[in-house]
Amino acid sequence: MKRTSYVLDPWSSELPSDYKHLMEEFGIKPITEDLKKRMPDSHLIRRGILFAQRDLGRIVKAYEEGEEFAILTGVKPSNVFHLGSKLVADVLKFFQEMNGRLFYAVADIEAYHANKQSLEKSAEIAVDNIADLLALGVSEKNSYFYKQSQEEEVMRNGYLYARNVTNNTLKAVYGDKEIGLYMSALVQVGDILLPESEKFGGPKPVIVPVGIDQDPHIRLTRDIAAKHRLVRPSSVYTKFMRSLTGSEKMSKSEPMGMISLNDDEKTVEVKVMRAFTGGRVTVEEQREKGGEPLKCVVFELFKYHLEEDDKKLEERFRKCVNGEIMCGECKKQAAQRLKEFLRKHQEKKKKMIPKARKLLEKK
Ligand code: TRP
Ligand code: SF4
Question: What distance in Å separates the CA atoms of residue 271 and residue 335, rounded to the nearest whole number?
Fold first, then answer.
């Protein structure tokens, strides 16, 4: 017997319980209907990919009133970009469309401490990463790209902001870590408050899009901002893309689980065809019971990256739960679209490499 009734919720914003706990404990709020209405339409909002915020209202207000605000993000240049990084680029673009100015920190100091990676190696990978961002449509015009190790303001402020930060605070926020990591944390505070420095025109609203794992940095920075009479930065939280193998977060350390933006066609094909799905053990069982798209990483690929049209996404969801489409076919379609996307992306990216290199030259 086919199942005909189901809860149609292809972009369920159901959060893991530990998210809920985190949100309640640290005052992170959902994105309200009112805020949604006041921002440009985007699949990131409609599909709950951006799912929570702190002081986002301040950013929306700046947007409405045509006032200046900054977008700040930092990424360790520890590996080539993957689909999770594309998601970050989508979020940056969304806020650039609201007229924010992007500040992009190449976190080479952090990579030095956390990944034991040389500054030279970071410089090399950063060029590749920034070429990806430009090819993905991040606007160069309203952007400032810099390396932590070369931005004097960030380093200097890192030292100055260390005042009144006790060992106990750092321990409570990050756990018992080496000094270098604590220093990177203060450099990161320097990053987040850079747009508010005199060099960039003084205090202003700043939005920091992050994964929820970065929230300790945000809390520390907000406390420090208040002490230094700066505007406490706002934050917005993105869901992680799961690994293709089904584990919680797409990560650089699990190559079969992530699609790199440099992957060739063959590799993409293999990875997608082996991906973790919400399919049943046998085709018969799947025809009868339907698949489970909410568990399925392939469905997630469509939702985050491969299907722009909400109606078509819903249609896929419906066909899946009704057992009208099998995983083999569905995965083939995903692989096809992904290959197409990457082919075009890689072409554009190649042309962006010299520009990316130039953007990172010492200013
Ligand atoms: N700590 C971040 C990471 O692990 C990188 C980072 C550095 C960052 N500076 C930042 C993130 C400022 C957000 C804002 O990837
Ligand atoms: Fe996932 Fe598609 Fe299989 Fe449904 S049919 S479980 S969406 S791969």
Answer: 9
pLDDT given at position 18: 63
Nearest CA to ligand 1 atom 10: 74
What is the arithmetic mean of pLDDT over 37-64?
Answer: 96
pLDDT for 348: 98
pLDDT above 90 covers what percent of the chain?
A: 80
Cα 290 to ligand 2 centre (Å): 9
Q: Which of 194, 262, 256, 253 is nearest to 225 (CA)?
A: 194
- Nearest ligand 2 atom to the CA of 278 is 6
pLDDT at residue 8 greater than cutoff 70: no
With 0.90 as the threshold, say if the pTM is over it: yes
Q: Across residues 44-64, what is the average pLDDT?
A: 96
- What's the confidence (pLDDT) of residue 253? 66
> Does ligand 1 come within 6 angstroms of the Cβ of 262?
no
Contact, 57 vs 104, CB < 8 A?
Answer: no
With helix as H, strand as E and coil as C, how does the chain read?
CCCCCCCCCCCCCCCCHHHHHHHHHHCCEECCHHHHHHCCCCHHHHCCCEEEEECHHHHHHHHHCCCCCEEEEEECCCCCCEHHHHHHHHHHHHHHHCCCEEEEEECHHHHHHHCCCCHHHHHHHHHHHHHHHHHCCCCCCCEEEEEHHHCHHHHHHHHHHCCCCCHHHHHHHHCCCCHHHHHHHHHHHHHHHHHHCHHHCCCCCEEEEECHHHHHHHHHHHHHHHHCCCCCCEEEEECCCCCCCCCCCCCCCCHHHCCECCCCHHHHHHHHHCCCCCCCCCHHHHHHHCCCHHHCHHHHHHHHHHCCCHHHHHHHHHHHHCCCCCHHHHHHHHHHHHHHHHHHHHHHHHHHHHHHHHHCCCC
- Does 210 contact ligand 1 (Cβ within 6 A)? yes
* pLDDT tens digits, 58-107: 999 999 999 999 999 999 999 999 999 999 999 999 999 999 999 999 99
- Name the residue with the closest Cα to ligand 2, atom 8: 327
